[in-house]
Amino acid sequence: MSLRINYNFQAEFTHVNLLKTERNLNTSLERLSTGYRINSAKDDAAGLFIADQLRLVAKALNQGSRNAQDGISAAQIAESSLSQIYDKLTAMYTKAEQAANDTNDPNARAALQTDIEKLRDAILKIASTAEFNGIKLLDGTFQDKVIHFGPRAGQTLSISIASALPQDLGAALVKSNNGNPLITSANTGTYTGSDPTQFNSGEDLIINGTSVVQGFADGDDLDAAKIAQNINENVKGVTATAKNEITGTVEFGTISIGSDDSATITISGPEGNATINLASGQGYDLNAMISLINGVSNNTGVFAKADSTGTKLVLYTQNGGTFNLDFSVSPGATSGNTSIDLAKFGAATSTVVDDTNTTGYIHSIGTITLESPEAITISATGGIDADLGITTGTFNITSLQAIDVTNNTSAEDALKILNGAIKKVDSLRSDLGSIQINLQAIIDNNDFAATQTSEAESRIRNVDFAKEMANFTKQQTLMQSGMAMLAQANQLPQMVLQLLR
């Protein structure tokens, strides 16, 4: 044992450890008083960096949720306004339907037209004034608006709302052959099928980029109903309607069969074939012919009725399918006592089948009407467009501005225009609903992620009070014992006095 009085090593050693204990005690006191394990970078440099980044992400996630909620609010306002527009459109539709009824006189239709125009003005006001935070929603300018929902740059989604202004609502309408069936008639021969009534393998009809000649083989009769079905099944957003109805171009009167002649009418339609025998020496007026044709309609799918005047024959199929009538006369010895004018059955010009020209036919393809709330683009190859009377090109919508219900034809078109507008509004509402669902899912995910991120930050930054209290008690005890030992160490140099006695 060495004893020195100029340097008290024991006291110095105890003092150094006492200062260390004091620092630890102060750190523990700071943590317990603030609740944070990391109060400055010196407490945990790496932990501070990680905790700060986690805090940043949590705050950004919460702001992203607020941004998404603003997007939902804008979508809700737009959807609410579209709901009002929908109500106005349905009111316009019922008025157009009322105007399509020919029991209305011109004054009544003029009044309905005025009502429709007022409803259209109401739609204009709604669509042009709907806004969120000063931003117009339904006038077509709300395009590619960014919702930043994530904590990092680029974590966004885009929202666009198409215009709901009257000039941008409506339907593209396309009618083959101007709405008239394509009729081919001949005064000699029977129908065997030839251009333009047959499909050729090199032909194709394309609607909005999609071929619509599925199911046709080379040599098949063209059929408006089958093409319309293909369009409805394969072309999104386009509704096709087939109609095949032909009216005699002259009054029917009576068809007389000579006493030594006989005649047949063979009808081919969507359901099959049937033959009607016209007996020798018999006369057939309009009602008799209607009865004969309808008597075999279950086998052919071809029906007959009188026109609105009650004097002309109307032939039609219920689904717009193609049909054919073959006429044949078996002449007797007497000539000139049988005459069947095909104009009575819908031929464009007088074509007579008699005991000289013993065969003839009428072949009707039908007409196709296309409707869509968006523009329709039509292209064709092989000349099928001419065969069907369909014009190629791009057909833009006919808007609500063009609605006219002052006659039956325009009122019927108005119903199609309004139907397209209603579909467009419903589509917009559906899109907005999907946006709201998507944004709500984002909010839910952000909220959960923010909670988990804050929990991760808390584990790093916040103090564990139980553990820290135990540490504080330890440091406090060390401080007390250190002070006691420093006092003892300061007494050691006095032992040198024992050697000096």
UniProtKB/TrEMBL annotation:
Molecular functions (GO terms) = structural molecule activity
Query: Tell me, what does this protein do in biology?
Result: Flagellin is the subunit protein which polymerizes to form the filaments of bacterial flagella.
Kindly state which keywords UniProt assigns to this record, in alphabetical order.
Bacterial flagellum, Cell projection, Cilium, Flagellum, Secreted
Q: What is its main location?
A: secreted
Q: Where is the Flagellin N-terminal domain?
A: 5-142
Family membership: Belongs to the bacterial flagellin family.
Q: What is this protein called?
A: Flagellin
Listed Pfam families? Flagellin_C, Flagellin_N
State the GO CC annotations: bacterial-type flagellum; extracellular region
Q: Cellular location of this protein?
A: Secreted; Bacterial flagellum
Which organism is this entry from? Answer: Desulfurobacterium atlanticum
Question: Where do the Flagellin C-terminal domain residues begin and end?
Answer: 415-500
